[in-house]
Amino acid sequence: MAVLLEIPKKNVEVTMLREKLTEISSASADKIPAETVAVMAQAKKNLAASGIMNETIKVGEQLPDFLLEDGDGKLVSLAGLKRHGPVLLTVYRGMW
Predict the structure, then answer these.
(1) For position 77, what pLDDT does the model report?
(2) What is the biggest distance separating any 2 CA atoms in the chain, rounded to whole angstroms?
(3) Measured in whole angstroms, how far is the alpha carbon of residue 32 from the centre of its chain?
(4) What residues in the chain have per-residue pLDDT under 50?
(5) Does 88 reside within a domain?
(6) Going by fewer Cβ within 10 Å, which terminus of the chain is more open, N or C?
(7) Looking at residue 29, what is its pLDDT?
(8) Residue 34 lies inside a defined structural domain of this protein
């Protein structure tokens, strides 16, 4: 089993990451057309209204071991990653 961990806000590296992500977000906001921003905002509202957030992985939730391909197509297991230390799991929605 894996545990989705909440990273303490006092961590220097996390603070630096938050600052960098805020900087990137602010820089890109001016480049996104207003129509696109409106579509994204409406999609966010629709998702919230759908109740889908009640079905998402929560901080501290136990996850079963799983096997997925990494970016190079190599199979990687959660258990294998945990042998090297804590695992930060990021889930993206969407199609690409």
Answers:
(1) 93
(2) 46
(3) 21
(4) 1-5, 7, 96
(5) no
(6) C
(7) 73
(8) yes
Provide the domain limits for residue 8: 2-82
Q: How far is CA 43 from the centre of its chain?
A: 17
**What is the count of structural domains for the chain?**
1
What pLDDT does residue 1 have?
A: 44
Nearest-5° Cα angle at 67, 71 to 92 = 55
Inside any domain, residue 51: yes
List the structure tokens of 86.
């804590």
SS (H, E, C) the chain: CEECCCCCCCCHHHHHHHHHHHHHHHHHHCCCCHHHHHHHHHHHHHHHHHCHHHHCCCCCCEECCCEEECCCCCEEEHHHHHCCCCCCCCCCCCCC
* Pairing, β 62-63 against β 75-77: unpaired
Write 51-59 long-range contacts (CB < 8 A, 24+).
Answer: 57/4, 57/89, 57/91, 58/4, 59/4, 59/5, 59/6
* Angular region, 12: left φ>0, alpha ψ -120 to 50, beta rest: alpha
